[in-house]
Design goal:
Layout lengths: L8 H5 L5 H7 L4 E2 L9 E2 L1 H11 L5 E4 L2 E4 L2 E2 L6 E2 L3 E2 L3 E2 L7 H5 L2 E6 L2 E6 L11 H21 L5 E2 L6 E4 L3 E2 L2 E2 L1
Parallel strand pairs: 9-11
Antiparallel strand pairs: 1-6, 2-4, 3-4, 5-6, 7-8, 9-10, 10-12, 13-14
């Protein structure tokens, strides 16, 4: 399965996050054991590229037609780090990130049968921005994000009530938009 991301989400987020902000923070690249289910979805083509170009020691957990990255546990801690994180420079993948990473701090979630674009409460940089600026970026990115999520339902996570809903996907019935 070849998966390509054609949206310009990073451009839409430029006013909210810089690569330098992300490299300093790295909060989205580490997980407690209770939130390992939120690790990014990795498609076979990207898994091959990761092993060949970025980190030949990465390991993956198979799920249907995709993978989850097996994270490395920090010794004596309940903390797991992404294998693609350089703790000095940030993500070693640059602009070649998985979908979940590319859209962070936004998350696609399902609530009562609808896809919603939410904001992770974990991103300290974006959470320090004006909420209307965050909403504007979400509005601009939502179409392409929902389009990708519609054809790749494995990236849609269950709704968590601590994630503010920024955009609700519009439903189409008999040619009308609801």
């Amino acid at each position: 399965m070849t998966v390509s991301y054609t949206w310009q989400v990073r451009k839409m987020l430029e006013g909210l996050l810089t690569k330098e902000d992300c490299a300093k923070c790295q909060l989205c690249c580490k997980f407690d054991s209770y939130d390992l289910w939120q690790t990014p979805v990795i498609y076979p083509s990207l898994a091959s590229r990761i092993l060949q170009e970025y980190s030949p020691l990465c390991r993956f957990i198979k799920r249907d037609d995709h993978f989850l990255m097996k994270m490395q546990r920090e010794p004596d801690m309940d903390l797991y780090y992404c294998n693609l994180l350089d703790r000095e420079k940030g993500c070693i993948m640059g602009d070649d990130k998985p979908f979940d990473c590319e859209i962070f701090p936004f998350r696609v979630m399902e609530l009562m049968g609808r896809k919603v674009l939410t904001l992770s409460p974990a991103c300290p940089v974006v959470n320090s921005k004006k909420f209307e600026d965050v909403c504007t970026a979400a509005d601009k990115a939502a179409g392409e994000i929902f389009e990708f999520a519609s054809s790749h339902p494995e990236v849609v996570k269950p709704y968590l009530d601590d994630h503010p809903i920024l955009v609700v996907e519009k439903s189409r019935y008999k040619g009308s938009i609801i």
